[in-house]
Design brief:
alpha+beta; Thrombin, subunit H; 2 domains; 3 helices; about 40% helix
Length: about 290
């Protein structure tokens, strides 16, 4: 049979002692309360002294408890401020990243607008311009260097016509479609461009190296006329390319020549124009396919 709920204290001596001392504490509290009440009525001044003594005893305890409460509150508030600062820092980083992306896009748009404006000005100044278009692709890994321009036979483009950009000579058209054309870049091994040294006007032959650079060789054998930073431009010899178009800038000297980077890099150029040959008689010769294709 289960013991009754709330068994009497007589079952445990400890419970009896606890109950007894509870009664004593209650009676003592009542007596002390009555004493203090009577003291406050009969002797207010003495009661004020008792209150002061009680205040002196409880003040340190109250101060300690208050300091502990303030410390706990400060820790909680500091932790909240820390997490809030971390959240604000994350928000600022995301905003900074978004602003940086917007700045990059704005710079790209500005750069494209500058190139487009330069190409339009170039077409206005060039009386033999046939068509203009965007360079939509170029080869990098292959030794054959080509670019594709968004202008074709429907725009009047014919195979053999020179292609240039505001930065300099790009190459010549070798294949044409209705709306696009393939351009043989000046850095291709089969592309030979008659040029001259801008400093002094010495005749130079520019030949593509197939690695994005061009090889420069003077016609006069015996001394190397090149210096780092020299600019070579088309000479007009052969009648295909007009004279004075920038071709390349010397970046390294060789034993009897130099290596140059094209002034018009398809990776950096967005727009180009197709021109008539400098001399009309040069177009049938330009229409011949490269030696490696024949």
């Amino acid at each position: 049979m289960a013991p009754p709920v709330g068994a009497r204290p007589g079952w445990s001596r400890r419970a009896q002692y606890g109950l007894f001392f509870s009664f004593l504490a209650t009676i003592a509290g009542v007596l002390i309360g009555l004493f203090l009440l009577g003291l406050s009525i009969v002797a207010p001044h003495a009661y004020a002294g008792v209150r002061g003594a009680t205040l002196d005893v409880t003040a340190p305890v109250t101060g300690a408890l208050r300091q502990a409460t303030t410390t706990v509150t400060g820790l909680a508030s500091g932790a909240g401020n820390y997490w809030d600062a971390a959240r604000q820092n994350g928000d600022l980083k995301r905003q900074q990243l978004a602003l940086r992306q917007q700045i990059i896009q704005a710079r790209a748009i500005l750069n494209e607008n500058v190139q487009l404006k330069a190409a339009l000005q170039l077409r206005e100044k060039a009386p033999t311009a046939v068509a203009s278009g965007r360079i939509v692709g170029s080869s990098y890994e292959s030794q054959r260097r080509y670019a594709v321009i968004s202008a074709g036979s429907g725009d009047g483009v014919v195979a053999g016509m020179p292609v240039r950009s505001p930065a300099g000579l790009v190459g010549r058209v070798v294949d044409i479609g209705a709306t696009a054309s393939r351009v043989l870049l000046i850095s291709d091994r089969s592309n030979v461009v008659p040029t001259r040294l801008l400093r002094g006007g010495q005749a130079v032959i520019s030949t593509g190296r197939g690695d994005g650079t061009v090889d420069l060789r003077p016609l006069e054998v015996g001394r190397n006329p090149f210096k780092r930073g020299d600019i070579v431009v088309t000479s007009g010899t052969g009648g295909l390319y007009p004279p004075g178009v920038p071709v390349g800038r010397v970046v390294r000297l060789d034993d009897d020549g130099a290596i140059a980077l094209p002034m018009a890099d398809p990776a950096d150029v967005s727009f180009a124009i197709v021109e008539q040959p400098y001399e009309e008689a040069a177009l049938p010769m330009a229409d011949q396919p490269p030696a490696e294709q024949r």
